[in-house]
Specification:
One of its GO terms (molecular function) is endonuclease activity. By secondary structure, the chain is of the alpha+beta class. The chain folds into three domains: 185 residues, DNA methylase specificity domains (Adenine-n6-DNA-methyltransferase TaqI, Chain A, domain 2, Alpha-Beta Complex); 89 residues, Helix Hairpins (Orthogonal Bundle); 149 residues, Adenine-n6-DNA-methyltransferase TaqI, Chain A, domain 2, CATH 3.90.220. It has 14 helices and 23 strands. The C terminus is likely disordered.
Length: 461
């Protein structure tokens, strides 16, 4: 590790850079010393795993203990400006600073509180360092447990940390503040795009089914209900005909609303039935060109059954819509997924806890029905626009992947000294002599000796 950092830096263990490791790097109380039953709505705040993210404190769902209990647990206390690190969960080693506007309190067993020595560290520098690949890789080597990864306090005290002079630490922290703010801003903008694309797709669907997508088409203002169109509707089998006990693995798929998303049928291999059961319920088998619709829960789940997907069964929570020569199956799917239909279904569906469609509601849905050729053209245009949106979404997801890795890449460069190479060349007096990192360590040793503090002893492996 030392060969990757500038020669002016020093490498030491976390416990080397505090006056009293036993008091400055501590974990929370054993579970038996702080039980959930002791939490209350007011008093002294306690910080839990869910309040700690990488470089970010989450001031939500704060629990409290009595002030008397907090005094009892004073060894495990924190105060604003301390750094808190997670030692349980995946990922491990999330670290952030307790904000200045947050009250002093107590940490739980799954956390470590680090109280820095201002002589040695800029707290922002150290927090960035603790969240960097250099530290994360060290923690990952010492993970215990499989279901819930964890590390012990000694591992954190023994972390190897590259330390620059205090002046360079501040410069690094300032540069990281600027660079990572730009990364966060870029990420926030990218994360908004999927929602924009969702609204775009809904707008396309709305235009498709109200005659506004193809401006060159002859106007067709005639409104018809689906019943007038002559669509055959069949509700999935009653619960008495298909029980949970009938489900097997790797059989013939049963399609319920959960399997229908964005016009695509995605069967579950765990929700299938045997050939024998399929034969018993054959009147609910799906045929090529059918439109299957979710009739429970979220409205607007609809998809066309395509060639190669025909051997499937309509589930209890779904309905089959079988078309005729008057209407294109895909056009019908677009109607059922459109904001107009969703709004109508939500208004007319029955049920309070979970909305439920029936055949009467679907039959009464009013639709614009152009001739079959125009329906084909509308479907073609919608698929073209959706493909365009899908391409953009894929590019955005790829960009997000790169941005998410950018933070760790920048942190890695920072703690190899790459962000401040020019600064060191221009400011040799701030990294040498009494301003050097080595001089910092000597000051800490002197302060420890003066206070009677002792380093934690480490057992040999």
């Amino acid at each position: 590790m030392s060969d990757l950092m500038p020669k002016e830096w020093i490498l030491g263990k976390a416990s080397d850079f505090v006056v009293s490791p036993q008091n400055d790097i501590v974990d929370g109380p054993f579970g038996s010393n702080l039980k959930a039953s002791e939490y209350q709505l007011s008093g002294t705040p306690i910080i839990r795993l869910q309040n700690i993210k990488r470089l970010r404190f989450i001031n939500k769902n704060i629990k409290y203990v009595s002030n008397e209990k907090a005094i009892e647990l004073s060894r495990h206390s924190y105060k604003k400006g301390d750094i808190v690190i997670t030692k349980l969960g995946d990922p491990l080693g999330l670290a952030c600073i307790i904000p200045e506007n947050f009250r002093d309190g107590v940490i739980v067993a799954d956390l470590v509180r680090l109280r820095i020595n201002d002589l040695a560290f800029d707290k922002q520098y150290l927090t960035y360092l603790l969240n960097s690949p250099l530290v994360i890789s060290q923690l990952n080597k010492h993970i215990k447990g499989t279901t819930r990864p964890r590390i012990n306090l000694g591992i954190i005290r023994d972390l190897n940390l590259p330390i620059a002079s205090i002046s360079e630490q501040k410069v690094i922290a300032e540069k990281l503040d600027t660079l990572l703010a730009q990364v966060d801003s870029t990420k926030a903008r990218l994360e908004q795009i999927p929602q924009i694309l969702k609204r775009f797709r809904q707008a396309v669907l709305a235009a498709a089914v109200n005659g506004n997508l193809n401006k060159n088409a002859k106007p067709n203002t005639k409104v018809r209900t689906l019943q007038d169109v002559g669509i055959i509707i069949k509700t999935g089998p009653f619960g008495s005909a298909l029980h949970k006990s009938d489900y097997i693995s790797n059989g013939i798929p049963v399609i319920n609303p959960m399997h229908i998303n964005d016009g695509i049928i995605s069967p579950s291999l765990s929700m299938t039935i045997s050939d024998k059961k399929y034969a018993e319920l054959s009147s609910w088998s799906l045929q090529d060109g059918d439109v299957i619709v979710g009739r429970r829960g979220e409205m607007g789940r609809a998809a066309v059954v395509n060639i190669g997907q025909s051997k499937m069964l309509c589930g209890t929570g779904s309905m089959i819509l079988r078309t005729n020569s008057n209407i294109n199956s895909k056009y019908l799917e677009l109607i059922l997924r459109s904001p107009i239909a969703i709004s109508y279904f939500n208004k007319e569906a029955v049920g309070s806890t979970m909305v439920n469609l029936n055949q009467k509601v679907i039959n009464s849905l009013e639709v614009y029905l152009p001739n079959i050729e125009e329906q084909h053209e509308i479907v073609r245009r919608v698929e073209q626009l959706f493909a365009y949106a899908d391409t953009i979404e894929k590019q955005v997801n790829n960009a997000l992947t790169r941005v998410n890795s950018l933070t760790q890449s920048i942190l890695a460069k920072a703690f190899r000294g790459e962000l401040t190479a020019q600064w060191r060349a221009e400011n040799p007096e701030l990294i040498s002599g009494e301003n050097s990192a080595a001089a910092l360590l000597e000051k800490i040793k002197a302060e420890r000796a003066a206070s009677g503090g002792k380093k934690t002893s480490r057992k040999k492996a």
